Amino acid sequence: xxxxxxxxxxxxxxxxxxxxxxxxxxxxxxxxxxxxxxxxxxxxxxxxxxxxxxxxxxxxxxxxxxxxxxxxxxxxxxxxxxxxxxxxxxxxxxxxxxxxxxxxxxxxxxxxxxxxxxxxxxxxxxxxxxxxxxx
Length: 135
Known about the structure:
- The chain is α+β, with helices and mostly antiparallel strands.
- Helices cover 18% and strands 41% of the residues.
- Strands 2, 3, 5, 6 and 7 form a 5-stranded antiparallel β-sheet that branches. Strands 4-1-8 form a 3-stranded mixed β-sheet.
- The longest helix is centred in the N-terminal third of the chain and has 15 residues, at 2-16.
């Protein structure tokens, strides 16, 4: 019995500090497309495009919902784009400006590039829901 209690005590921090982040994304294209999302846990990870987790889901009528489950308490930023032509990448024009819809958590915007981690970061202390729009 003591061994079971000891194991339960050791496992407790893993599930006590885990949280789910429910994400709703809107303002996507009305036609068939796939939404790609990447979750980052630091400014360095975002700058180096090293996602902690990623997902892709179908956009239905320009909207999608998904969950990143079991995340440790902390700050996270999400970047996303709607792949409208099925090539699995964010297309850009000759100047590097996106030609497909994209968005960041907190509806963050950057100047002459993507927003900073701090601008897009959301604090996750418990199960939470966020919403942002594609542009």
